[in-house]
Amino acid sequence: MSLVGLSNLSRSFIRVKGPDASKFLNGLVTTRLLPNVVKKKQHTISANEDKHLKLAEVVNLLENWGLMHEDIYDPENHIFVRRDGLYLMFLNSKGRVVNDCFQYAFPYHTSTDTLQVAYDEGPNYLLELSPKHSRPLLSLLKIHKLSAKVKIETSESYSYYYFNDTPEFEEWLDKIQSKYMATLDPASALDAANQFIASQEFISQALAKNVVGLAIDNRIPGFGVKIVTDIKVEDPVALLSDEFKNNFEVKEVPEELVTHRRYVNGLFETGDAPAGTTMLPFEANLDYVNGLSLEKGCYIGQELTIRTFNGGVIRKRVVPVTFSGPDNVSELLAGVDVSNIDISRVSEQKEQKSEQKSAPSPFANTASSPFGSSGKVSRRGKLGKILSIDGNDGFMLATVSDVEQDSMFKFEVDGVTVIVEAHIPEWWPE
Predict the structure, then answer these.
(1) CATH of domain 4-265
(2) How far is residue 317's CA from residue 400's CA, in Å, rounded to a whole number?
(3) Locations of Polar residues compositional bias (predicted)?
(4) Residue by residue, what is the 3-state secondary structure of 368-410?
(5) Closest C-alpha to 124, from 34, 226, 33, 21
(6) Greater confidence, 360 or 385?
(7) pLDDT tens digits for range 400-429
(8) 260-285 pLDDT, tens per residue?
(9) What angle do CA 287, 428, 127 make, to 5 degrees?
(10) What is the dihedral of CA 121, 122, 127, 131, to 10 degrees?
């Protein structure tokens, strides 16, 4: 697989703008868009959180102020105010995932009069998502609009993705984030974005006027860079500056390669799962991919999400898997509902031990039943649920303890046995 690539992604965009845009979206997404620290008891606010109280002094929600970036695993508990985009999820009232997306402050920079005019219009956001989720999310946003002063519409924008799996690019990306994306207030954020564009360290001068959104893909640290334009760029390589191309290889690759790289690295997107799949945000690894704020206040699905996190017990997660057996698993499973495939262990002995562990109840047989005993032991549920397949790689929703006990599974289709090896990605927090 190529270590380097630039690709035009098939994505849909929704624009949300207006005086109430920040407050409106804050009530729907898993990331923070309001500057307040939510604590029931004031004396429980830590020293790190105390400095966040000053956000309300610098963030004017009626202006085009940007986005708040935070990482729940950051021991310093930093919150940066930046112009670049970030990853998040929309949940339903039951705390289940509706879809994931990237959110951008629009426009990223104001180096032209046209972009300055767009910036001056006030709060303005772009949501980038899988095309199959666009219409349902548009309907969801309009249902919740009520009296909010926002305008919700589709946007003709285009998504490009650059990746480079070399240590040199990782070092460069760290430098760029430290230099231009560690800002703490809206004015500094806009100034840094304009400086980054003017420096031509990444974006070409010729097409800078068309770049309206930019994001470092830190779902996996330094995984790539996302660029959003207001025109379709026929030669995506022209998006990147000569300075950057003198230092790093740049070549156009098909979108399928970007997708395959995600699968190989274990980076799941909700668009990978079959239509109608329901899962909790932690099952989709939201907490591992920088898409969650724990103290942002109320939003749809928040109660179950925070209760689950504080409870510390997240049994199931989506894990990457590798298939072996037939030459092409995708061909074998063409037309098959993969989510209904019966998964079993390769080692029957370990499967029996797993069932024995899950069968007994601590409250069982505390008293004899007057109706006698059936002698039956309740069996545990399915070992795993295949969600998607890309070549010989895929994603499976499984109990983490099962994978840690034994990562080898199997299933059978049309008399052909397929071996499934699950992996715990190295980038998951310990």
Answers:
(1) 3.30.70.1400
(2) 6
(3) 363-376
(4) CCCCCCCCCCCCCCCCEEEEEEECCEEEEEEEHHHHHHCCEEE
(5) 21
(6) 385
(7) 999 999 999 999 998 999 999 999 999 999
(8) 999 999 999 999 999 999 999 999 99
(9) 40
(10) -30
The answer to whether 291 and 219 have CB atoms below 8 angstroms apart is yes
Question: Are the beta carbons of 161 and 229 closer than 8 angstroms?
Answer: no
Domain ranges of the chain: 4-265
Exposure class string for 378-395: b at 16+ Cβ within 10 A, else e: eeeeebbbbbbbbbbbbb
pTM higher than 0.85: yes
Question: Going by C-beta distance under 8 Å and a sequence separation of 6 or more, which residues neighbour residue 268?
Answer: 262, 284, 285, 318, 320, 387, 395
Q: How many Cα atoms sit within 13 Å of 331 on the Cβ side?
A: 5
* Helix axes 167-180 and 186-199, enclosed angle (nearest 10): 140
Q: Per residue in 366-381, pLDDT tens?
A: 444 443 433 333 334 5
**Residues 6 or more apart from 103 whose CB is under 8 A from it?**
25, 29, 31, 67, 85, 86, 87, 88, 125, 126, 127, 128
Q: What are phi and psi of 325, to 5 degrees?
A: 135, -95
Q: Which helix (H) or strand (E) holds 338?
A: none
Share the mean pLDDT of the chain.
90
